[in-house]
């Protein structure tokens, strides 16, 4: 992998973008002056993207720098990117701070201001910048990894973090998420038949089932589009509310049509457009994102 220059402690910076400030010396992220709780990996990714603001950082480079000497599952990077976007309020699909460059990597696209922060010359490693730390893999790592993948991410036992945090999702939610990640339509149908309501949210103000499913376009740009269409149709037929707006004001349609997700030519986007335009689900403006309507856009 390509080597990469890292800032020495005395060269750490304070980065300002949007409503956010990322202080590398204190290793803190604040939004509107309030410190945001966020895991180390998304912050490490943020640091890498800011160091290369305006340029594409490939997936291979990020995997090598953030998870050195470790083989991770495919979803680890986009999962960490999603957490980072949530933390910094990157909620505008039409004007993203972090752009997905399909099939290549990510680019920090928002304007960035930086100010040098003085710090002692004596090195004091932060947990996130400690370099290639020795990781202690237990004999049960494969079993633990399999369980964590089902929970939407991956964790590793390391010398500075021996206990993984509990999953925020129930066993039923983990099964739902796993089925959506795999585009397993029979599994989705089985869970719906057993009483699963696709309008249940995975977090307050967060995505419902259909909005969560649309992440497949970012997780796996090479996914089977026919299966994605069948999965989305299955959720809609089970009365998933396509007009639901998450805390960022997005609907399933506004997410799907964004280039960083599925894009306007994806069959799921086209299906949602037909439904919104048909009048079957009332007028199309209810399918629009709140911020788009505030700009005067109409369906």
TrEMBL record:
Regions recorded as binding DNA: 10-110
Is the keyword Acyltransferase assigned to this protein?
no
Q: Where is the signal peptide?
A: none
Lineage, top-rank taxon, reads Bacteria
A Pfam match: Trans_reg_C
- The protein's name: Winged helix-turn-helix domain-containing protein
Q: Which GO biological-process labels does this protein carry?
A: phosphorelay signal transduction system; regulation of DNA-templated transcription
Write out the entry's keywords from A to Z: DNA-binding
Recorded GO molecular functions are: DNA binding
User: What organism is recorded for this protein?
Assistant: Sphingomonas rhizophila
* Domain OmpR/PhoB-type as annotated: residue spans: 10-110
């Amino acid at each position: 992998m390509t080597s990469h220059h890292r800032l020495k402690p005395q060269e750490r910076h304070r980065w300002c973008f949007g409503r956010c400030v990322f202080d590398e010396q204190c290793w803190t992220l604040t939004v509107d002056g309030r410190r945001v709780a966020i895991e180390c990996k998304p912050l490490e990714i943020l640091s890498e993207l800011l160091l290369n603001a305006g340029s594409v950082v490939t997936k291979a480079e990020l995997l090598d720098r953030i998870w050195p000497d470790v083989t991770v599952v495919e979803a680890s990077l986009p999962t960490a990117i999603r957490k980072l976007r949530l933390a910094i309020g990157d909620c505008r699909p039409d004007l993203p701070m972090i752009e997905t460059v399909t099939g290549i990597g990510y680019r920090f696209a928002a304007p960035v201001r930086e100010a040098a922060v003085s710090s002692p010359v004596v090195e004091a490693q932060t947990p996130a910048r400690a370099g290639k730390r020795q990781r202690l893999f237990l004999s049960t790592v494969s079993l633990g990894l399999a369980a964590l993948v089902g929970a939407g991410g991956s964790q590793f036992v390391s010398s500075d973090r021996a206990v993984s945090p509990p999953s925020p999702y129930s066993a039923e939610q983990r099964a739902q998420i796993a089925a959506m990640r795999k585009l397993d339509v029979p599994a989705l149908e089985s869970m719906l038949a057993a009483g699963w309501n696709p309008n249940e949210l995975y977090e307050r103000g967060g995505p419902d089932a259909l909005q969560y499913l649309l992440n497949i376009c970012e997780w796996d740009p090479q996914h089977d589009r026919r299966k994605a269409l069948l999965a989305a149709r299955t959720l809609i037929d089970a009365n998933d509310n396509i007009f639901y707006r998450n805390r960022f004001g997005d609907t399933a349609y506004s997410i799907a049509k964004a280039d960083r997700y599925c894009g306007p030519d994806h069959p799921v986007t086209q299906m949602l457009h037909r439904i919104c335009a048909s009048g079957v689900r009332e007028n199309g403006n209810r399918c629009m994102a709140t911020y788009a309507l505030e700009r005067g856009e109409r369906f």
